[in-house]
Amino acid sequence: MLVFIARRLFVSIWVFLAASVLVFILSTNVRDPLAEARQLPDSARESAIRAITERMHLDDPILLRYLRWLGDALTGNLGTNRQGQDVNAMLENAFSATIQLITGATVLAIVLGITIGVISALRQYSALDQSVTFVAFICFSLPLFWVGTLLKQFLALDFNDWLADPQISPLFIGGIALITGLFCGGVVVGDRRSRLTAFVSSTAAMAVLLWVLSATEWFSDPGLGPVVVAITAIGGAIGFTTLVSGLEWKPPLQAALAAAVLGIIAYFALDPVLDDPQLITIVLLALVTAGICFALGWFLGGDLYRRNAIPAAIFTGLFAGAVIFTDRMLQSFKDYSDSVGNRPISTVGAETPNYDGTFWESGLDSFGHLALPTLALVLISLATYSRYTRASMLEVMNQDYVRTGRAKGLSERAVVTRHVLRNGLIPITTLVAYDIGTIVGGAVVTEQVFGWSAMGNLLFTGIAQGDPMPIMAFYVVSGGAIVVFNMVADIAYAFLDPRIRLS
To answer: What pLDDT digit, counting tens, does each position of 381-427 carry?
Structure first.
């Protein structure tokens, strides 16, 4: 394995260096960096040309300029741009904005895409599968700039106007309830009676829920409250236990329920701490939660069920913490909305200029600016993950060892989670690693549509000015991420499938 990793690392370094030479040559010839200086008045033209020439070393051969850049880059210095600004500082600001933009979108696209693909494969050729396929192909074929424009109109402008008087029409309630019922009825595995029961109950529950939320004007001053937090935490405990081990074993369920109960207690006990915390406080609370839940799974799981009880307890504890986090943020929604003129969903930029609020209000401000670009990226990426996952799952489900597992009497949950899903995700590992590496370079179109000053803006600035330094800074991050994550994908693939590293 070490020889395989060393070989892939050696090849990756040379690929990165070879590509850097090509990118540097192209970036130095993309545009004349002295074009604007030549248009200045006679009194300022010569001095401006001389200053730019000295700063960019335009009198030196391209090879010498590249070697000078490479030597500085190896020490962490990416030089200065045409105006003399530090490229490292420009890259730091652009990269942080890009990470903020793509992290949530990438995680949501991967989780939702894989989940939808698994459900679609298990319900092959059903109405749910055909509906998911239809929607996935529509999302995949839509241009991103058009999706962003639609989201601006209907999920920003119209939604902000609706929040002034958040009343839900009966037609909208009926439509959402019907869609929910069809989805739940399609997901349920069983006979026609079971699916019909799921459809009727979920449709009625969603209709009643939306009516209550509309009648109480919940959307203008939202919040979950202790009852909803408790029910959600307990439901999460049951769900995670079912996913990890099934409900036939009691110790994992007991550990998960104990974690949920601790989450409910923490909801009241940590009220003063969560009034206006710092980010480090939230991170420390998450680490403490994981540690306590690990201990619960260790002691309550016993020697036989410890392997299943520990992840069930940790997932439940972190999920309960996420629900509490969401509740505290929703409680600050009204104050934040009033402070930004009742326009909580923003269409431009990464933050509200000169906004100073509490931790929760600042979080809502970031969420309001991230909502539209994140949703646009998720809709486009969702189709790829769901289709690849569905195809991989269907291929694995026809293998002999899956039929052998069923023949031995394993439950369907065990067959799906232990054999089908685990082996079906091997090709998805490569796709995920490559997608992350690609998108780190910046969601260029999305940044332009939603006015984000991030990696894409850094690239466009370098191209427009004929300045290779910002372009090379963009390449260091984007090209480096692609090379690194491709190498990670190869290593992960070889770790999951030993035949790869033996070939």
So the answer is: 888 888 888 888 888 888 888 888 888 887 777 787 777 877 777 77
Among positive and negative, which fits the CA dihedral 157, 158, 162, 163?
negative
pLDDT of residue 500: 60
In the numeric block, which tokens belong to residue 174? 């009926």
DSSP 214-240: HHTTGGGS---HHHHHHHHHHHHHHHH
Residue pair 260/321 in contact by the 8 Å Cβ criterion: no
Q: What would the pLDDT profile of 158-184 be if each residue is shown by its tens digit?
A: 888 888 778 888 888 888 988 888 877
What are the φ and ψ backbone dihedral angles of 86, each rounded to 5 degrees? -70, 120
Interatomic CA distance for residues 311 and 255, integer angstroms: 10
Rounded to the nearest 5°, which phi and psi values hold at 222? -80, 170
Secondary structure of residue 86 in the 3-state scheme: strand
Rounded Cα gap, residues 326 and 328, in angstroms: 6
Do 492 and 433 contact (CB within 8 A), yes or no?
yes
Phi, psi of 367 (to 5 degrees): -65, -40
Specify the residue for token string 């590249």. 66
Provide long-range contacts, Cβ within 8 A and 24+ apart, for 302-307: 302/251, 304/251, 305/245, 305/249, 305/251, 305/252
Phi, psi of 363 (to 5 degrees): -65, -40
Q: What is the DSSP letter of 415?
A: I
Q: Which two tokens stand for residue 206?
A: 């969603």
Q: Token pair of 273, please? A: 């701490």
User: For position 225, what pLDDT does the model report?
Assistant: 87
Residues of the chain scoring pLDDT < 50: none
Residue 290: predicted pLDDT: 94
**Distance, CA of 392 to CA of 120 (rounded, Å):** 11
Question: In this predicted structure, what is the pLDDT of residue 498?
Answer: 63
Q: Which of 438, 430, 422 lies closest to 380, judged by CA? A: 438
Return the pLDDT at 353: 81
CB atoms within 10 A of CB 11: 13
The rounded distance, in Å, linking the Cα atoms of 312 and 245 is: 8
Phi, psi of 80 (to 5 degrees): -125, 155
Q: What are phi and psi of 42, to 5 degrees?
A: -60, -35
Q: Tell me what pLDDT residue 190 has.
A: 63
pLDDT of residue 441: 61
Handedness of CA 22, 26, 29, 34 (dihedral sign): negative
Distance CA 263, CA 289 (A): 9
- What are the b/e assignments for 384-400, b being 16+ CB within 10 Å? bbbbbbbebbbebbeee
Q: Tokens 């319900």 map to which residue?
A: 123
Which tokens in the block code for residue 285?
């609370």
**Gap between the Cα atoms of 421 and 303, Å rounded:** 26
Tell me how far the alpha carbon of residue 88 is from its chain's centroid. Answer: 26
End-to-end CA distance of the chain: 12
